[in-house]
Amino acid sequence: MFTKDTDRERGQVGIGTLIVFIAMVLVAAIAAGVLINTAGMLQSQAEATGEESTAQVSDRLDIVSTSGTIGEDGEGENAITDLKFVMATAPGSDPVDLEEVTVQFIGEQGEETIELEEGHLENIQGLQSETVLIDSNARAEIEIYLGDGDTEDGDVEAWDPMSEGERGTVIFTTDSGASTEKELRIPTTIIDDEESVRL
Description:
Blueprint: H1 15-58, E1 61-72, E2 78-89, E3 96-97, E4 102-107, E5 110-115, E6 121-125, E7 132-133, E8 139-145, E9 162-163, E10 167-173, E11 179-185, E12 196-198
Antiparallel strand pairs: 1-2, 1-12, 2-8, 2-9, 3-7, 4-5, 4-10, 6-8, 10-11
């Protein structure tokens, strides 16, 4: 004789369970969408930050040589009346537009920042255009006049010519934020017979 097993557990299936299941699927889909959007946004931000950081390190200028033209200060003493920098891009740098470069002068006479202009550029060779250094083989000579109120706009009007033994610092900063620093040391004796001196 057979008996029925009435103690067996039976699953409950109905419209309520279906609604709960659909709600769980929707919540999971929404959460997944939020996570995917957040991950994409973080990836884009990380890429942009990486590119900017790389540019700040690599897109900079190298100073090939520095010299100063010998003249007289306001008291008739020998002094450096203008500075000449031969510039190139650093290895691995992207092209640098010299008109987007700022130059900061820090020294005994105070501090001043100027922006390079086409009038500062002399003896340009191998440039992509009149003001753009395309690679490390290109060279541009930048000439900046110092002080005494007779300089044109864009020169270091706040500074007088640099006298014997004077020191200062020049910082070139490209539009990507990369900086190149040069310390200037004027010789303690400037000879009249010379037109310029290496600094």
